[in-house]
Amino acid sequence: MKIGLIFGTRPEAIKMAPVYHQLKKNNITVKVILTGQHKEMLQQVLNLFQIESDYNLEIMKENQELSELTGRLIIELDKIIKKEKLDYILVQGDTTSAFVGALVAFYNKIPVGHIEAGLRTGDIYSPFPEEINRRLIGTIADIHFAPTEINVKNLKKEGISGNRIIKCGNTVIDSLKWIIKNKRELLKNIREKYNINNKKYILLTMHRRENWGKPMIEVLNAIKDYINKKEDLYVVFPMHLNPRVREIINKTLKNCKNKILLEPLEYLEFIAIMEKAYYIMTDSGGIQEEAPTLGKPTLVLRDTTERPEAIEAGTAKLVGTCYKNILKYMELLEGKLYQDMLKVGNPYGDGKTSERIRAYLQKIESEGKI
Ligand code: UD1
Ligand code: UDP
């Protein structure tokens, strides 16, 4: 069995890493086809998880537009897929790399397995363009590796037959647990390096396209005004490399007192900082999944989420992006709400998702049908 893994951004690499190692460990031939949609942020993850690629299209350009990225990727991925005789192609999540990977696999009649299938907000512009990417991948895919029961239901509602859906958790928990188990000592040293071991800090990340402009400005202004009133509270903000995001951050947080602006952190470093955060504010998908494992209350800086499980479990709140609401929730977290949200648990997986994916692929291979 020869399996192609197509991916190209930081979160896909984090979530593909355990699958890559599971397949390799079981002597399955793996071809890693990187789109290079991300560059530095992808490389950090490849190094940490020791992923060796067979191809890297190095497609990234500064400030890339979606249409151009999509167009160039279709042409370049097609050449590789035509050359390699793959039995299955696996894509992860909802990025442009994942969508184009699935599309080109379909053009070449290669069955597609979708990891992290069935996440939906119901709003095609939120997150943008990810909601459409994952719906389109869902239409193309032959096998749907769905993290949770809610994801399974979403897929069934769209008419996907139950025997093509495998409920298996999210591979991000496999990665997170691997780090916590194998790199525990390093985590402590990292916090010392950033001089935050004894500080009380909120961990912030923001990068989504639909938040560019007014939503991001309002959120950052609220955080700045709140932090400036406090003596001992810091905001730690590892910034995405996107120049459009950085421009807003630099302008809006210029007069914010206790801010620690950082370059994108290596995954290991990010987990170390997440572990000791007072709470998290984020518009990230992956961080919404990791935070409950670490028992971190999370304010989700978006109007919609495809990950309602943590909200239902009470560890996360969907707070939108309007100035007043952000301030309101930051103030509420000074009181009882904080204790209510301090729960450890994980609706997204048990750390064995990649094993289930590998086992399912071996099963269909031996049975000769999906
Ligand atoms: C992409 C995904 C998004 C995912 C995010 C994870 C799409 C449409 N979006 O969004 O779903 O949540 O990755 O981070 O697939 N850049 C660098 N170096 C890097 C990475 C990015 O300089 O290593 C800069 C480049 O100028 C690039 C820009 O960031 O053009 C935007 O990258 P892009 O992949 O288009 O969008 P993201 O916001 O990263
Ligand atoms: N992450 C990281 N370094 C950072 C910020 C985030 O390694 O500086 C990790 C984080 O732990 C999570 C993933 O990157 O696993 C989320 O990536 P991102 O927020 O860019 O994308 P999304 O999950 O929203 O698609």
UniProtKB/TrEMBL annotation:
InterPro entries: UDP_GlcNAc_Epimerase_2_dom (IPR003331), WecB-like (IPR029767). One of its GO terms (molecular function) is UDP-N-acetylglucosamine 2-epimerase activity. Residues 23-361 form the UDP-N-acetylglucosamine 2-epimerase domain. Its EC number is 5.1.3.14. Keywords: Isomerase. The keyword Isomerase applies. The keyword Iron does not apply. It is an enzyme of class 5 (isomerase). Pfam families: Epimerase_2. It comes from the Bacteria. Belongs to the UDP-N-acetylglucosamine 2-epimerase family. This is UDP-N-acetylglucosamine 2-epimerase (non-hydrolyzing).
